[in-house]
Amino acid sequence: MSDTESDKTSSVTATPHRYDTTRAREIEERWQEHWERHGTYLTPNPGEGELAGDPAEAARPKKFIMDMFPYPSGAGLHVGHPLGFIATDAYSRFLRMTGHNVLHSMGFDAFGLPAEQYAVQTGTHPRVTTEANIQTYRAQLRRLGMGYDPRRSFATIDPEYYRWTQWIFLQIFNSWYDHEAGRARPVAELVEQFASGARPTPDGRPWAELTEAERADVLGEYRLAYASDAPVNWCPGLGTVLANEEVTADGRSERGNFPVFRSRLRQWNMRITAYADRLLSDLDTVEWPEAIRTAQRNWIGRSEGARARFLVGEEGDGGFVDVFTTRQDTLFGATYMVLAPEHHVVDAIVPQSWPAGTREAWTGGHATPAEAVAAYRKQASTKSDVERQAEAKEKTGVFTGAFATNPVNGERIPVFVADYVLMGYGTGAIMAVPAHDARDFAFARAFELPMRCVVAPPAGGGRGTDPATWDDAFVGGGEARIVNSTSDALSIDGLTVDEAKARVTAWLTERGLGEGTVNYRLRDWLFSRQRYWGEPFPIVYDEDGIAHALPESMLPLELPEVADYSPRTFDPEDADTQPETPLSRNEDWVDVTLDLGDGRGERRFRRETNTMPNWAGSCWYHLRYIDPRNDEKLVDPELERHWMGPREGADTGGVDLYVGGSEHAVLHLLYARFWHKVLFDLGHVSSAEPYHRLVNQGMIQAYVYRDARGFPVPAAEVVERDGAYVHEGQRVSRELGKIGKSLKNVVSPDDVIGEYGTDTLRLYEMAMGPLEVSRPWETRAVVGQYRLLQRLWRNVVDEATGEVVVADVEPDEATLRAMHKAIHGVTQDMNTLRFNTAIAKITELNNHATRLPRGQVPRVVAETLVLLVSPLAPHIGEELWRRLGHTDSVTRQDFPVADPAYAVDETVTCVVQIRGKIRARLTVPTGIDEDELRERALAEPAVTAALGGAEIRKVIVRAPKLVNIVPV
User: Fold this and answer.
1) Cβ distance 685 to 679 under 8 Å?
2) Closest to 830 (Cα-Cα) out of 890, 895, 908
3) Is 172 part of any domain?
4) For the chain, what is the radius of gyration of the CA atoms?
5) For the segment 101-150, what is each residue's pLDDT rounded down to a tens digit?
6) Which of 654, 657, 673, 643 is nearest to 293 (CA)?
7) What CATH number corresponds to the domain at position 54?
8) What phi and psi, each to the nearest 5 degrees, are found at residue 700?
9) Which helix (H) or strand (E) holds 372?
10) pLDDT value, residue 390
């Protein structure tokens, strides 16, 4: 036996009741079993029913706490995943101890492409692998000590869940947006308006004279869920259509990295644009990070301007093209027009041959305009919208051979197609004013197009009035003056930009050549996927191709069994292909005879063979947590009002706290808000917003080690030697990066728990830094929180005998002050999710208790320590609370309350600087130590915002008056 092993054996013999890994695991497994057996975390609903629970518990003030639920991958959780989960669990435990009835559960977002792709590879049904992955996640979350209500858990793939996803889709399908009323209304009310003549049909014929197909077409222009032929992102390599947000900036699929092309296909869409203004205005009612609100505002992209109508083609044979512009004051400066390559008018205006005088630079080297446009369209189809809008050095486009007429001066200007104009913004057409728009300026220079200055640059500003001498466009605005803008019909010379905008808008409106309008960057939500593993649409088509909603009695419409789970994929470079879905190959399921209950008896129908996107199930899962077993209603109205309804400080209602990653700034959050607002308009919910308070947790990163070729090597096999990092005898580089299998730096929480225990892992993840800030994982640093728990254990339990060693004595004044200062500080920190500084304060009190004579820790101090640490380290909290003689769970104990007489200390103002600039002032105790001051400074919201996620190189602390933070 070695000396080290002998020493360990002696230590174990001398301290058989020590808090070590074995004891931690035994305690944790025992209490997890106890919580499950006794239903410790079951959350009662007010009133009667399965989830009624204890009336006294249900009568407490409520709090609804949610995590963005995970997609259960086969790899299970790594240490980065639980960061937000542990935070919400600790906060929920704290709230229970402060007198709240807390709803906190966990579900699984389980439809989607990864499971389908695995099914394609293995032939295993995606439900089998997904449910196995869910069980793995459940086991890991249980091992992490999560205090979820298991009765409220579900997965989006459960038929009893997606029955209601389909039901919500039908509510949206059967609704239209009444802009006059400012809300959604049932389509049946719209039909009544058409039938009575209160609302005229598009062609003026009576509603009764329209065929069924014609009526369906009219209603389709109003429905909030509708099918249409539209430009889409077609990915042949995946065999499916993608949303804009699923396409990378370089025009490739986010998953699989395949080329993505623009193509016109018939797809389901959600008319989210009808809610653009409400989605914008209600951002002011929620407590969200400003960066997330800004991202949504930018994505919605509201802009005020005017539409101007240009006649196009020879003698106007191409009709009118409406142009949206926010600079109607510059109409006289328009020297050419640009259409998006997909614009429907292009084919109508392209002549058979090039007009006389066409410049060689305009033709793209093609013999005819039709050839030039066709070639350019194919080229543009390979670019995503993001890529097309990027600031490229080289501007591309071709002349259509046609001309348009400027409405203010009658001037004929050439019409081009160019990919920097999108059908998804405005009208898909722009009037190009190169002297006063940077992109138009670059395009005009590339294609030798004329420029005309119509907004005078400031005198002495270094540029004259001839754009040919300029290096870039002069945008101007506000008080700048208009020049060169007079015709027989209109003159705006000498007006300011703002005055000219008003004058031009009025002039266009008076003559029927345009009007003032508001435009949005937001496009309707593409809602079809050519996949198997998603919610089937509850829609069937009759022999005339008319879409019909399935009656509620036929929900859920479940996925059929199929032999092949994959959509048909194609050569990734072949844009001239069409989707073929897995469902379309199951003819027995697709072609059906049904009685839809409309009085017409049984008829033949064909089912929709696309499926819903993976976002559908996550648009409403907050409502299912409230009422998870209701098979009569989406959610009981009284329960929704109780948990989510409007209240003081939350006029639009919503979940009290929602924690998740900032990567969902637009997609999930915008979609969920839209669905919830439709449900609100239709009277199904009382809250107008789904999530009142949002917190984005930072990312846990890990070191990535790369060999000389730049390839990652297994992080676990790297050793540090003489200040360098070595793998298999070769030096490797080190950098911080995401945690992932491809980077070979995954750290499993199971491994950490196996070495130190769950409570240590929970404390370490919460102590690493402010919740919102990204931080590096350092396995060697975990031991610091392990030792905190060991010291806490020794302050209560004798390691040799296992007996409780606290004393039934009153604390001295210094100990009282230390205790109440800790209570005060931890309470504040837990309320504001500053878990790292809360742990620092607990550590300080624990160290104070450790310095007291052995066996002389006052009982009140020991119990206070246990209560303070319990939300963060619940297993040891339960164990020590029981050993201190209590029979009830610590979960429902009252959180300690500080005595102000002892909690107040002499204070001083500490200045926090970043790069030498003052970003915050903190009021801190005069005796604060450097570590606590550093933690407080880094946790200060103003400091967090100023850093903006930047990595910190060093922190200089001069306690108690100065902290200087130096970012990288």
Assistant:
1) yes
2) 895
3) no
4) 33
5) 999 999 999 998 788 888 888 888 999 999 999 999 999 999 999 999 99
6) 673
7) 1.10.730.10
8) -85, 120
9) helix 369-380
10) 63
Which tens digit of pLDDT belongs to each residue from 294-312? 999 999 999 999 999 999 9
For residue 719, what are the β-bridge partners? 726
Mark whether 289 and 309 lie in a shared domain: no
What average pLDDT is seen over the chain?
Answer: 92
Give the dihedral sign, CA 275/276/278/279. positive
Same-domain check for residues 879 and 834:
yes
- Bond from prior residue into 556 cis (ω within 30 degrees of 0): yes
Domain assignment present for 544: yes
Q: What is the pLDDT of residue 2?
A: 41
User: Based on the number of CB atoms within 10 Å of its own CB, is 619 exposed (0-12), middle (13-18) or buried (19 or more)?
Assistant: buried
**Residue whose token pair is 């499993």:** 748
- Burial class of residue 6 in the structure, from the number of CB atoms within 10 Å of its CB (0-12 exposed, 13-18 middle, 19+ buried): exposed
Residue 668 corresponds to which tokens in the numbers above? 């999930």
d(CA 104, CA 88): 8
Helix, strand and coil in the chain, % to nearest 5:
40, 20, 40
**Residue 820, CA atoms < 13 Å, CB-side half-sphere:** 14
d(CA 209, CA 201): 10
- HSE toward the beta carbon, residue 840, CA cutoff 13 A: 23
The pair of three-digit structure tokens given for residue 813, joined into one six-digit string = 């004044």
CA 637 – CA 529 distance, rounded (Å)? 32
Q: Binning pLDDT at 50, 70 and 90, where does residue 49 land? A: low
Whether residue 928 contacts residue 960, with contact meaning beta carbons closer than 8 Å, is answered with yes
Residue pair 255/246 in contact by the 8 Å Cβ criterion: yes
- Is the Cα torsion angle 931, 937, 940, 944 positive or negative in sign? negative
> Could you say which DSSP state residue 102 is in?
E
- Residue 265's SS3 state is strand
Same domain, yes or no: 325 and 469: yes
**SS3 readout for 681-739:** HCCCCCCCCCECEEEECCCEEEEEEECCCCCEECHHHCEEECCEEEECCEEEEEEEECC
CB-count exposure of residue 445 (10 Å: 0-12, 13-18, 19+): middle
Question: Please, are residues 272 and 241 in contact by the beta-carbon 8 Å criterion?
Answer: no
Do 695 and 705 fall within a single domain? no
Rounded to whole angstroms, the Cα distance separating 45 from 140 reads 27
Identify the CA nearest to 965 among candidates 925, 928, 920, 927: 920
Cα separation, 544 vs 578, whole angstroms? 22
Amino acid at 394: E
Rounded distance between C-alpha atoms, residue 947 and residue 813, angstroms: 40
Q: How far is CA 125 from CA 522, 559, 643, in A?
A: 37, 12, 37
Give 385's pLDDT tier (boundaries 50, 70, 90).
low
pTM to 2 decimal places: 0.84
* Amino acid at site 292: I
Domain containing residue 707 = 701-737
Q: Which helix (H) or strand (E) holds 913?
A: strand 907-914
The owner of tokens 């409406």 is: 322
In a domain, residue 202? The reply is yes
Do you find a cis peptide bond into 960, omega within 30 degrees of 0? yes
pLDDT beyond 70 at 378: yes
Tell me if 474 sits within 8 A of 457, measured CB to CB: yes
Identify the three-state secondary structure at position 547.
Answer: strand
DSSP summary character for residue 187: H
3-class DSSP assignment, residue 587: helix
Interatomic CA distance for residues 308 and 406, integer angstroms: 9
pLDDT of residue 256: 87
Measured CA to CA, the distance from residue 324 to residue 332 in angstroms comes to 15
